[in-house]
Thiamine-phosphate synthase
Amino acid sequence: MNAGWYDENNNGFVPMVELHNQRGQVQPAVCRILDANLDRAREGLRIIEEWCRFGLNNAQLSGECKQLRQELATWHNPELRAARDTPSDPGTQLTHPQEQQRTDLKSLLQANFCRVEEALRVLEEYGKLYHPQMGSAFKHMRYRVYILESQFLGYERHQQLLRSQLYLVTSPANDLLSVVEAALAGGLTLVQYRDKNTKDGDRLAHAQQLCQLCHKYSALFLVNDRVDLALAVEADGVHLGQQDLPIKVARQLLGPHKIIGCSTTNAEEMQRAIQGGADYIGVGPVYETPTKADKPAAGLEYVRYAAQHSPVPWFAIGGIDVNNINDVISAGAERVAVVRAIVEAEQPTLVTQYFISQLTRVHIRNNKPELSQSYV
């Protein structure tokens, strides 16, 4: 790139060297700052790109990372590179314990998104001293990275949803946190917080605790009914009933990258939920359950219908336990949601593992082994 800008009053393109002469010499320290942060942003994007390419196999996300890297490279001119002075840089000796370890893939990728965004902010501000177009260029690029991060997280959530076999819907319990953690330790990857009667202040506190716990185990966390609560705790999405907020309105509030599920009891409700944009549906209640005391059992026939007609992931739900899960699986279910079977279990970890083992068998039998692999 030939750095400079177009000046209409001076009849054409003004090279960067002339710009320096007109406005005063740019300090070498500014050039060093720009060089370091161009390196930092490009390196962070490359780390993200590698996972988008090889981990997610997503051409669109990896392509956007590559495009951003190439645009950064056009600004990384020889003058900025020449300002580099690594031997005398005190920052090379500075470190933090968190930089020396990454607990999981999610923390690694989040750290690098933060790294890129911080570097672009630095480039935006110091770039104003170097080139008249640099500030606006990096401001625009920074917003593109925010969008990329949102798209990445949305894709990650939906991949996790596809791979989730067992879905725990909570009910009030004195030891709920310990029960949920025990289930997460057993391999659970999807939790919905459901509490119809507790005061909002207490619900908010419980939802925050559960959300943090689920994300600690890299599990998805959804909130029943309440879009406002889901937004407040930064949940991965919501689950809506037939009488709740319309899916379209919830989508407008949550954005395109959060998960929205919907309860259905028959074929008509299923089609309406799918057409409305539900990411997944609940199919049931399969058996009579006190959780849905006002609804008659939909039975295994509706499970068979869902197996044949649902184009989105679906979870059989309602009265499912260790004694009848194989009947539900035989009817065509590959994913199930449970409440009391885990919340009231004496050993939630073992019950969770049993459910997952039964569901894993059917996935392998149906030649879908990828569904039985937990998404990192």
